[in-house]
Amino acid sequence: MPACPRSDVVCVGEVGIYHCWSRCVRRAFLCGQDPLTGKDYEYRREWIRDFEEYVAGLFGIEVGFHAELSNHIHLVLRTRPDVVDSWSDEEVVRRWLDISHLTKSRDGLPACPAHLNARTHARSRPPLTSRAKCPTESTRHH
To answer: How far is 135 from 53, CA to CA, in rounded Å?
Structure first.
């Protein structure tokens, strides 16, 4: 069954609660013990949870519930347009750069690339900041 376009499901500017899920294919294992090969992928569970929380925060989304199972995940997410509306243009650009580049510092934490300056981008590209505050707007016509 084909999925609905995000623009048909998400109401821009309104708080929404959504159940999202994603699964692995071709017998790939996300976390836990693979009974066929005996490999233990349990170490991934904490990394996945941390990454879910980090990325959700960049988009102004709260994770209400999460379950990381052997071959799929479930998330209950709440959009927070009230929080996003309070972000400055610089904050929007900083978050957008984090999302689009997902670079890491030497300690493994996400870091903004040194050559990209959020303040410069916020001043030079104001239309980006308004579009970036609403991720569904960029997908509305696709």
So the answer is: 17
Q: Write down the pTM of the prediction.
A: 0.67
Per-residue pLDDT of the chain (142 residues; tens, 9 = 90+): 467 887 888 888 899 999 999 998 888 888 988 888 899 999 999 999 999 999 999 999 999 999 999 889 999 999 999 999 999 999 998 898 888 776 566 676 655 555 455 555 555 545 555 555 655 444 444 3
The reply to whether 58 falls in a domain is yes
The answer to whether residues 34 and 71 belong to one domain is: yes
Q: Give the residue numbers spanning the domain of 106.
A: 87-133
| Cα 8 off chain centre by | 19
Residue keyed to tokens 């995940």: 73
Report the number of distinct structural domains present in the chain: 2
